[in-house]
């Protein structure tokens, strides 16, 4: 086989396995704490989460921003940026690689944790959080809260309340009105059973 033909085949193979990349310019406001009395402070944690399989999002639990879900993935963690004009506002470009199970149509969700920062690798129990997604194109966005076709490109995706120019989202939509839960006792019990089994196995090996 001639060398040019080999090079051509290699290029075709690499193109076939290339993964598409898009950029989402994510922005908005107002993001609040636990009430509309206080906007989330600069440096507070925000996340863009994708559900890669079932389009169902599992709420955060102690020790896991995705509640231990097998298919939820945090695409990006970033912060409130008061430099945009006021507290509670943000703008963040996010590059999304269509790899693994991440693909067109997967639902997206914005989550915010007004008392946490990116230094918190896992969420403590009782931490307040808010979340938002909708199946409509709104708030000057280009797309709904789902991944677009994997043909490349840059897309605007915004969350706004009425104070920031939305015609549909009240201020209450920006409130962190949920809290990070402790995993259910059944889950803890299963972990305990598994650990007990491992200890028993280790003792039997020593014997």
Provide structural commentary.
This protein is an alpha+beta fold and 207 residues long. It has one domain. The protein is built from two helices and eight strands. The protein has helices at 3-17, 185-206, and strands at 21-29, 45-51, 72-79, 90-97, 107-113, 128-132, 154-160, 178-179. The longest helix has 22 residues, at 185-206. It is globular and about 40 Å long. It starts with a helix and ends with a helix. 29% of the residues are buried.
Would you list the SSEs in sequence order as H and E? HEEEEEEEEH
- What is the overall pLDDT average? 85
Q: Unreliable segments (pLDDT under 50, ≥5 consecutive)? A: 5-18, 187-195
The major pleated sheet works out as: 5 strands, antiparallel
Helix count, DSSP H or I runs of 4 or more residues = 2
Could you say how many structural domains there are in total?
1
From the N-terminal CA to the C-terminal CA, the straight-line distance is 63 Å
Strand coverage percent? 25-35%
Shape: globular
Chart the SSEs and their pairings.
Layout: H1 3-17, E1 21-29, E2 45-51, E3 72-79, E4 90-97, E5 107-113, E6 128-132, E7 154-160, E8 178-179, H2 185-206
